[in-house]
Amino acid sequence: MSATTQSNKDRVFIFDTTLRDGEQSPGATMTLEEKLQVAETLDDMGVDIIEAGFPIASNGDFEAVVAVAKHVKRATVAGLARAITADIDRAGEAVRHARRGRIHTFVSTSPIHLAHQMKKTEDEVIEIIARTVAQARNLVDDVEWSAMDATRTPIEFLKRCVDTAIKAGATTINLPDTVGYAVPDEHFRMFKEIIGSVPNADKAIFSVHCHNDLGMAVANSLAGVAGGARQIECTINGLGERAGNAALEEVVMALRTRADAMPYYTEIETTHLSRASRIVAAASNFPVQYNKAIVGKNAFAHESGIHQDGMLKNAETYEIMTPASVGIKETTLVMGKHSGRAAFKDKLRELGYELGDNAFQEAFQRFKDLADRKKHVYDADIIALVDDEVGSAGDRIKLVDMEVVSKTGGVHSCTMTLSVDGEESTVTYDGTGSVDAIFSAIKQAVGQQPHLVLYAVDGVTGGTDAQASAHVRLELNGRIASGNAAEPDTLVASARAYLNAFNRVMIERGAAAQGAMAG
Ligand SMILES: CC(=O)SCCNC(=O)CCNC(=O)[C@H](O)C(C)(C)COP(=O)(O)OP(=O)(O)OC[C@H]1O[C@@H](n2cnc3c(N)ncnc32)[C@H](O)[C@@H]1OP(=O)(O)O
Ligand SMILES: CC(C)C(=O)C(=O)O
Question: Which ligand sits closest to the CA of 234?
Fold first, then answer.
């Protein structure tokens, strides 16, 4: 069954060319296995036509088109061919294995291409179109003809070409914006004019094929549809020659989300989009940019407090599509320096914490300080921070300020200001290393000499900006207590863990910090 017979007035056919134009991106070459996986994904998703390759290009491309043709269950499988007898025969040979095969043949129509690439006159091109489309039509029922560089072709000549192709048997007419030159309004008018004035235009489906050189591939594709086109040629992740093609996920979701403004529809199962994007990114080795529409890592992620607050109240405040509609499990509220209290409270609830007002305000302040210093604040950071906050909430001896000077082969000295029950004082102490100087300074300040049973430091997460989680166990007069602290700075974490243990060992003695702050 050809696209023509499937047609319905508002139905837009999705022609995916990830395996052909997408693979033309330098570096995006895929293996046969990868192509089959991509084709299967596209087929499952409801893509109408899969352009599987350019069979004359190489034996590998021919084999890939044959394999995809045999493998695909539902979609039409197309093979590309120049307006050359051998190309068309080779494409016909490849797509005959498909349940529905299409030959997609193309020739240049713009003056610059005719003069410099093809070295043909307009009349010669008309003769080529008539002959090659007829040849393709003798091989298969479903023939697409493309006017390469249509958007830089004089409209009257383009009409002659289209008329010739349809008369010769083309069932789909594609007017590509080969070099990404068009602007939406002009694209709309080109389709409107051609479809409205070529006498046999109703015998074919018109198609858009837009490149993204000026970032307008999706806008131009949609303008073409408004002008009467009913097939969009596109690729997953917008992969394709130079700046790429129109992204399939974007055109499909634009049509779905703004059906009020664009009353057209596709048969794509949109919940497959995210998976398809991941598969193509892996197969082509082209990572998807974080802020890519629909499938980028940040497409459904919010970090700023005002947006997070809105999202928690009603997701429609800042999301025009649901993540589930494109196959993403859920929205992520990323905790960072732009987050506010609403999101922080929600995150704490998710992590199982209910803090009182004061503890919450203190934890929030520490979270903000941490986020200022750290690129990514992970759940583990927040857990460490809150445990630390909760664990040291009753501490009477607190670290106010600390400066450590360390010299290779020289002295290590620590100047520290501590507060005991709100009263501050400062001491300086030297040690055999930085940590030794810190712990000695604390002992001197507090006027007690506990025995250090354990000292250990771990990274809360990975990376050089990860928080250090320090653990200290002290023994004083037969009592043992442990303390923990998490900080981006290992030495500060160590000092705070030591103080935390010190506070506990004191409390256990029943006379917190009695006689402390000797210095
Ligand atoms: C806009 C597009 O995306 S078009 C598709 C682009 N994709 C590719 O080119 C990928 C696959 N291509 C290839 O493997 C090779 O280019 C081949 C096998 C097609 C041709 O290889 P070669 O015979 O070595 O030719 P080469 O690539 O050097 O030049 C292309 C030739 O095709 C001609 N040509 C280009 N488009 C067409 C066309 N639509 N119809 C007829 N001839 C064409 C050119 O004028 C040139 O002919 P010339 O050698 O007589 O000057
Ligand atoms: C072969 C055609 C459809 C093409 O890829 C283009 O013109 O960009």
Answer: 2
